[in-house]
Prior knowledge:
five-stranded antiparallel sheet; Immunoglobulin-like
Amino acid sequence: MRLLRALAIPAAALLLLTSGLTQATATTTDADDGDTGTLTSPTMATAAAPAAMSTAGYSYTAPVDHCILFAAEIGATCYQWVGDDQWVVDGIANGWAAVVHVQTNYGKDRYCQALPSAEGWGKCNYDHTEGKCVRWQMYELKDGDTRNFTPWSAWYGTQYGYPC
């Protein structure tokens, strides 16, 4: 498992280099939704399966193009700046749910819980303010208890996915 963690950052960098960049559509008004979920009561991800993603079995492969992958032993998350989707997958069917805490540099905290029992990728759709930055960390949750917090990711731009 230590090897998997050691490869997560180079894999994410390679993903960024090979996926290219696509311009996000900016809105003229601040349509940013309110905070969603809490540390112990996160918003449940919705099951979604774009053509480029397989929900059969667990994989650290990023679910869609233009997505910044962040992987840990407990699961993985992928930030797709085009559409402001936060993908999440639980890596271990052990009764603990993988949760991703998404934080913005303009004061929003959001929590997205993976589908139960490592059933594949799910997503939470956010409407981040364009031209700002987001970062995330993962942890496990069960019956209001939390454990296995990962370090925070770097900050990434909401408009083009560049590091902030």
